[in-house]
Automatic annotation (TrEMBL):
Keyword Ion transport: no
Cadherin domain boundaries: 134-242, 243-347, 348-451, 452-559, 560-667
Location of this chain's protein in the cell: Cell membrane
Name of this chain's protein: Cadherin domain-containing protein
Species this chain originates from: Moschus moschiferus
BP GO annotations: homophilic cell adhesion via plasma membrane adhesion molecules
One GO cellular component term: plasma membrane
Alphabetical list of PANTHER family matching this protein: CADHERIN-87A, PROTOCADHERIN BETA-7
Transmembrane residue ranges: 680-703
Keywords: Calcium, Cell adhesion, Cell membrane, Glycoprotein, Membrane, Repeat, Signal, Transmembrane, Transmembrane helix
Topological relation to the membrane, as annotated: Single-pass type I membrane protein
GO molecular function: calcium ion binding
Length: 780
């Protein structure tokens, strides 16, 4: 209840403010301009800049507009020069009818700042219509006993023009009996009256036909004629007389068609046909004849059409009572139409601004005017909008209102407002009008793009094909249009961003690979993806993308050496460690899990040696009985499909510390390759010369040694016991003897002393082998 009381108080305050502003505005004198009707389109009326005391540039900057209640735009304003001219020809009779003067009110609306100036355009009448009689013939019955000086009212002519251009005089064709008198009637209408100059004699002149001419006051004057047919009657000395000469009636504008308006009454003292009265409208305009009808016998006047207070407020009827003898009398009936609240208020929109930028302070959205065609309290109005909107109505002068923003708008919160302007009048019952306007909120770049996650992790297999789609991320930006986002990444030669959109208009960046990846070279990437919108200034957001490269089994295991060589003593026990091979795989995970086995091994090898599938260590299962064993070790990974590699291991059975010659891998490879004939000849010749030289040296040394041995008296050889010292055998898996070792030889034929030689491992193999043989010879 309190809310309704408060709302009523607020509405009453707005109403009082409007009335106060309208009264203060009405005190100012409006601008007045004059133009003749039918003036050509483009006729110059005035310069508003001059009349308002404004410069042309100032007038143009204030965005002037001409507003009128008329449904047609009859005025044209040039905002650059301030010239006001006609936009079309004006027909005063169409615009104002019989009303004089014909004044068309309009308003000059200034936008910056808001200001309203009243103005009036006076349309002057020109003589463009001729007087017209409604009837082409006027019958008139006059008794022969009528005395000279008697007067008879005649039908007046109608002229759509007004003022001096209306009917100003009547004339009658020359005759011996009558002349015309002109009288001013109600509402400035001139009535013709036929006056009798001398007595009539029916036997002499039973009928007269006269031409009645109506003349207007134009220059040149226009005229209209009708025929007055006079029938001379026998004596009838009493004319009808109305009970009252004036009747005043009030009718509501909603009175139904056919309802009784008034009943007039007249009396005639004559009898017979001279006392029978017939009622009829006298000088009835076309509008009256369409609106009312009269019973010729009873004098009752009825509504023939609906009344409209907003069109005509007063009707003046002249009713004539005529008896059978041709005498008549008249009375006047004034019908006053009273207003009812039958017109809802009207909202006339002058300007509407949409869209409106968000975050703007108090902004004028619309300028409109309220009009109600009713009168009194029925024309008083109250204007309002919804309470839950950030807009405010501000009343101005002459029922103008401005709709402004009450607080800054946020497009991300609400992009569109449908505002219902409700206008209610104060009549009974109250009528209201609702006018909906749609206000769009335009975007301002006040939001930065934001990713749905602060970081992303993507996985991709290595060796992938270029242009592979890796994954998508998304960022949201509440802004729209040019303020939407774009995407960039930090400099990287492996990836680029491809932009795609969805049906909802959301942009998704797709990370696309530019070239194949190799996990063995780089296992992961870290990228920074930036979302940049297109606003001014632009805003941005960033996220981190971690790309993990998944391994593919694309690398075969590799041994650490191309070939392995090792030595094993001939008396090595079962379970002895022989050698260890090692291999690696560049892949990861199960693709890097490797296992060792013998490849294409015979049954003897499988029973003699055992290889650990995980460590690659080779141990003895049986005693060795061959001087040289050739083993092929296969290493295989667990990938899909599995990859493998093989290597050759030479195991040499040795006794002592000698180091037998093992052909290097390069020699074996060279032997396996086809030899060039010239190269073969050179190798054979060089080998022959070297062999001959070696043989000669051996013979020479042997002879000297034998002689020295025979000359020795107590010569003996110091023979070390046992086999090769333990420090001479390398079982570390490298396949060679230790880098330095010692051995002793005894040469006979000298002074009988032992010569001890220390030789480095870099001595040629064939010399080491010779010394070994010599040692055993001395021992024997």
């Amino acid at each position: 209840m309190d809310a309704r009381v408060e709302c009523a108080v607020q509405q009453r305050q707005v109403l009082f403010l409007c009335v106060f502003l309208g009264m203060s505005w009405a005190a100012e004198e409006p601008l007045e301009y004059f133009v003749e009707e039918e003036a050509e389109r483009g006729t110059f009326l005035a310069n508003l800049a001059h009349d308002l005391g404004l410069g042309m540039e100032e007038l143009s900057a204030r965005e002037p507009r001409v507003i009128s209640d008329q449904k047609i735009g009859f005025l044209l304003l040039d905002p650059l020069t301030g010239d006001l001219s006609l936009n079309e020809k004006l027909d005063r009779e169409e615009l104002c009818g019989p009303k004089e003067p014909c004044v068309l009110p309009f308003q000059l609306l200034m936008g910056k700042p808001f200001e309203v100036f009243r103005a009036k355009l006076w349309v002057r009448d020109i003589n463009d219509h001729s007087p017209v009689f409604l009837d082409r013939e006027i019958p008139l019955k006059i008794s022969e006993s009528t005395t000279p000086g008697a007067a008879f009212l005649l039908q007046s002519a109608q002229d759509s023009d007004v003022g001096t251009n209306n009917v100003r005089n009547y004339t009658i064709s020359p005759n011996a009996y009558f002349h015309i008198n002109v009288h001013n009637g109600a509402e400035g209408i001139i009535y013709p009256e036929l006056a009798l100059d001398r007595p009539l004699d029916r036997e002499e002149v039973p009928e007269l036909s006269l031409i009645l001419t109506a003349l207007d006051g134009g220059s040149p004057p226009r005229s209209g004629t009708t025929l007055v047919r006079i029938l001379v009657l026998d004596t009838n000395d009493n004319a009808p007389e109305f009970v009252q000469p004036l009747y005043k009636v009030q009718l509501c504008e909603d009175s139904p068609v056919g309802s009784l308006a008034v009943t007039v009454s007249a009396k005639d003292l004559d009898t017979g046909s001279n006392g029978e009265i017939v009622y009829a409208f006298f000088y009835a305009t076309e509008r009256i004849l369409k609106t009312f009808q009269i019973n010729p016998t009873s004098g009752s006047v009825y509504l023939k059409a609906e009344l409209d207070y907003e069109v005509i407020q007063t009707y003046t009827l002249t009713i004539q009572a005529k008896d059978g003898g041709g005498l008549s009398g008249k009375c006047t009936v004034v019908v006053q139409v009273t207003d009812i609240n039958d017109n809802p208020p009207e909202l006339l929109m002058s300007s509407l601004t949409s869209p409106i930028k968000e975050n703007s302070l108090e902004t004028v959205v619309a300028v409109f005017r309220i009009r109600d065609r009713d009168s009194g309290n029925n024309a008083k109005t109250v204007c309002s909008i919804q309470d839950d909107l950030p807009f405010l109505l501000k009343p101005s002068v002459e029922n103008y209102y401005t709709l402004v923003t009450d607080s800054p708008l946020d497009r991300e919160e609400r992009a569109e407002y449908i505002i219902t302007i409700t206008v209610t009048d104060m009549g009974t019952p109250r009528l209201k009008t609702e006018h909906n306007i749609t206000v769009l909120v335009s975007d301002v770049n006040d939001n930065a793009p934001a990713f749905t996650q602060t970081s992303y992790t993507l996985w991709v297999r290595e060796n992938n094909s270029p242009a592979l789609h890796i994954g998508s991320v998304s960022a949201t930006d509440p802004d729209a249009g040019a303020n939407a986002q774009n995407y960039t990444i930090n400099l990287n030669s492996f990836f680029h961003i491809k932009i795609s959109g969805s049906d909802e208009g959301i942009i998704y960046p797709e990370l696309v690979l530019d070239r194949a990846l190799d996990r063995e070279k780089q296992q992961e990437f870290s990228l920074t993806l930036t979302a940049l919108d297109g606003g001014l200034p632009p805003r941005s957001g960033a996220t981190n993308i971690h790309i993990v490269i998944l391994d593919v089994n694309d690398n075969a295991p590799q041994f650490s050496q191309a070939i392995y060589e090792t030595q094993a003593p001939e008396n090595s026990p079962v379970g002895s460690f022989i050698a260890k091979v090692s291999a690696g795989d560049a892949d990861s995970g199960i693709n890097a899990d490797i296992s060792y086995s013998f490849f294409d091994a015979s049954e003897d090898i499988l029973t003699t040696f055992h290889i650990n599938p995980f460590s690659g260590e080779i141990i003895l299962r049986l005693l060795l009985d061959y001087e040289l064993q050739r083993l092929v070790v296969l290493v295989r990974d667990n990938g899909e499909p599995p990859l493998s590699a093989s290597v050759t291991l030479h195991v040499l059975l040795v006794d002592g510390f000698s180091q037998p010659y093992l052909p290097p891998p390069e020699a074996e490879a060279a032997a396996a390759a086809p030899a060039d004939p010239l190269t073969v000849y050179l190798v054979v010749a060089l080998a022959s010369v070297s062999s001959l030289f070696l043989f000669s040296v051996l013979v020479f040394v042997a002879v000297r040694l034998c002689r020295r041995a025979g000359a020795a008296s107590a010569g003996r050889c110091a023979v070390p016991e046992g086999h090769f010292p333990g420090h001479l055998l390398d079982v570390s898996g490298t396949g060679t003897l230790s880098q330095s070792y010692q051995y002793e030889v005894c040469l006979t034929g000298g002074a009988g002393t032992n010569d001890t030689f220390q030789t480095a491992s870099h001595y040629p193999i064939h010399l080491q082998y010779f010394l070994y043989l010599r040692r055993h010879t001395c021992m024997s």
